[in-house]
From TrEMBL:
Alphabetic keyword roster: Apoplast, Secreted, Signal
Signal peptide span: 1-25
Main location: secreted
Subcellular location: Secreted, Extracellular space, Apoplast
PANTHER family referenced in this protein's UniProt entry, alphabetically: PROTEIN EXORDIUM-LIKE 5, PROTEIN EXORDIUM-RELATED
Family statement: Belongs to the EXORDIUM family.
GO CC terms: apoplast
Species this chain originates from: Brachypodium distachyon
InterPro entries in the cross-refs: EXORDIUM-like
Residue stretches spanning the membrane: none
Pfam family, one: Phi_1
Highest classification ranks of the organism: Eukaryota, Viridiplantae, Streptophyta, Embryophyta, Tracheophyta
Full protein name: Uncharacterized protein
Length: 311
């Protein structure tokens, strides 16, 4: 199994709340300033290719509306998205990841929504270790899949809040196949100031007013930010030897290298210039399926070796 645990890649800065992930990655609170071109090296490993099912394992109590927010986001990445997405869109954002495949022999994966597994009773308890996440992920498809484990706000996961907001990795090779997996936790009651920024008052740094979340749920809108980062990390570096910068033990990926950047003009403590819904006052940068609005992180564009934002 490729482990998704790693040490914090950089020192916390008092003037910023930056969320990032190491891969097989974790979205973390770190300081990262990239003034030089950001080169993502391809390490010649296998990439996801062809038709890939995205299966969701809901661990703990999630309301129907919370599940809809996350399901609609993932549907926005699918080749069979249920409705058109006005620009700037989640679909267009995801196409930046597709550019990485131009230097490999793999065909960019066509993501399709798969099964939903509900475990509202928390059958493995409310404190999970990494091996528990892999066990939960295995409830999805055994191969040609990204199995997404989502933990509720009262479920503790080793490293959650202290060093990561989400992670991704891969199952061991087996006769049944091999799947990639993603884990993201709901930070609403455990560490919203770390893992739900900019929709919550930051735990560290300048205390600017939090932004209004587009789906009215600080925890779940924070989860979407982490999930977006982890899905891109999974697509571009699924097995730990794909595209990344730096050491394999603490690599920077397409979203990691643009930590805390969501719009043009971003700087530590400021997410950048975002769109604002005139009706709700919510801040966002991408339109998704079924009329949803989301915040997605900047990605390193391999064509420019720089962080690319929508708009």
């Amino acid at each position: 199994m490729a482990s998704s645990s790693s040490t914090i890649a950089a020192t916390l800065v008092v003037c910023a709340l930056l969320l990032c992930q190491t891969c097989l990655a974790t979205r973390k609170l770190t300081a990262l300033v990239q003034e030089q071109p950001i080169t993502m090296k391809y390490h010649k490993g296998a990439l996801l290719s062809g038709r890939i099912a995205v299966n969701l394992v809901w661990y703990g109590n999630f309301s129907a509306s919370q599940r809809a927010v996350i399901t609609d986001f993932l549907s926005s990445l699918s080749t069979t998205a249920p409705s058109p997405q006005p620009e700037p869109s989640v679909a267009t954002w995801f196409k930046t990841a597709q550019k990485y495949y131009s230097t490999s022999k793999a065909r960019f994966p066509a993501l399709t929504m798969g099964a939903h597994v509900l475990d509202s009773s928390c059958s493995l308890g409310k404190r999970l270790r990494e091996k528990d996440l892999v066990k939960l992920a295995s409830r999805g498809s055994p191969s040609r899949a990204i199995n997404v484990v989502l933990t509720a706000d009262d479920v503790a996961v080793d490293g959650f809040c202290s060093s990561r907001c989400g992670s991704h990795g891969a199952s061991p090779r087996s006769r049944a196949g091999r799947f990639a997996y993603v884990w993201v936790g709901n930070p609403a009651t455990q560490c919203a100031g770390q893992c739900a920024w900019p929709y919550h008052q930051p735990q560290y740094g300048p205390q600017a007013a939090p932004l209004t979340p587009p789906n009215g749920d600080v925890g779940v809108d924070g989860m979407v930010v982490s999930l977006a980062s982890m899905v891109v990390g999974t697509v571009t570096n699924p097995f730990g030897n794909g595209f990344f910068q730096g050491p394999a033990e603490a690599p920077l990926e397409a979203a990691t290298a643009c930590a805390g950047v969501y719009g043009k003009g971003a700087y530590p403590g400021y997410a950048g210039s975002l769109l604002v819904d005139p009706t709700t006052g919510a801040s966002y940068n991408a339109n998704g399926a079924n009329g949803r609005k989301y915040l997605v992180p900047a990605l390193v564009d391999p064509d420019t070796s720089a962080c690319s934002t929508l708009g």
